[in-house]
Write a structure and sequence with these properties.
Length: 320
């Protein structure tokens, strides 16, 4: 392995380990604050840090973008930071103590969702075997969500509503990541910083609207002091360091290779949750294993395809 590849592997590991810790961290935070104002605070901090790095590395010229680029970056930032931040963590909050495990394994289905989004956007139909792996991956996620009791999942609407929100949030991040390909001349730092900054406006507006509608009670200053360690982790470790490491690592390894590191997310979340006393059931472990097998099998299958198909099937979502 070359030194460049070693660097890419280490960066992807740092990113996915930080994302694996994100969901257990949010378990504690969501007992004190709502996911909406927390998302505002998290991405405000991460956005300021990213903007500082962008200005330091690329200068003020990086801020000069066309109206069309501004609209596209705002739209993608809205989908990512409002969609992912609100839907995933609302779903995790609704799912209760085991929400971290459910959310983490569903994040590992994002590469499979990427194939479907790529099909919709670029009209590139995934190979037949990839559809089988997609179904296997989602079946694994269902096993995690239901703990193997599929009938109970159907009998309790709150369960599949929570899981549906998490999957919808994961899909939002897939769309955001695939959208990066429409900015080929932008660096990963520029894409992340500008979409975060522009998308924050939508996060603020959506939060204010939900507050007016009575969807949540504004947390007190004391509540935010209680979750300050959680907020700093989410803003810097998962939001700032994780996303940059992932984007740079995938630039080195290519998405086809980097996608395998998404398996680290549920494994890290399972380890942290177990240390905190939330031990996954055997069926949840089996479900996580199925999703991982589907992800690896699809990756190996696509490697055997022609270079054209490999390039067409390469969008790999990043966690942030």
């Amino acid at each position: 392995m070359t030194s460049s590849n070693t660097k890419g592997v280490l960066l992807c590991l740092v990113a996915t380990i930080s994302w694996g810790g994100m969901f257990p961290v949010m378990t504690g935070a969501l007992t004190h604050v709502d996911p909406y104002t927390f998302t505002c605070a998290r991405y405000t901090i991460a956005g300021l840090a990213l903007m500082g790095v962008l200005l330091a590395v690329e200068g003020r010229a990086a801020l000069r973008i066309t109206p069309r680029e501004t609209f596209a970056a705002w739209l993608l930032g809205t989908v990512a930071f409002t969609g992912f931040g609100f839907l995933v963590f609302l779903g995790q909050q609704m799912a209760g103590p085991r929400g971290a495990l459910m959310a983490s394994i569903m994040m590992a289905t994002q590469p499979m969702l990427g194939l479907l989004v790529n099909w919709a956007v670029r009209k590139v139909r995934p190979p037949l075997f990839s559809f089988a792996f997609i179904l296997l991956s989602f079946f694994g996620a269902i096993l995690v969500a239901s703990e193997g009791n599929l009938s109970a999942l159907l009998r309790q609407p709150g369960n599949y509503l929570a899981n549906g929100l998490i999957v919808a949030g994961a899909l939002c991040w897939v769309v955001y990541t695939v959208g990066a390909s429409f900015f080929p001349n932008w660096s990963p730092v520029r894409y992340t910083a500008l979409t975060t900054g522009l998308g924050l406006g939508s996060v603020y507006m959506a939060t204010m609207a939900l507050g007016v509608l009575g969807a949540f009670t504004m947390p007190t200053a004391g509540a935010y002091l209680d979750v300050m360690p959680h907020l700093l982790y989410m803003a810097f470790a998962a939001g700032f360091v994780g996303v940059l490491c992932w984007n740079v690592g995938n630039r080195i390894l290519t998405p086809l290779n980097g996608v395998l590191f998404m398996d680290v997310v549920p494994l890290t979340a399972f380890a942290i949750s177990a240390a905190e006393g939330v031990v996954p059931t055997p069926m949840q472990v089996a479900g996580a294993g199925l999703s991982c097998v589907a992800l690896v099998a699809n990756n190996l299958y696509l490697r055997r395809r022609t270079p054209v198909l490999r390039g067409a099937s390469s969008p790999v979502p990043a966690r942030g």
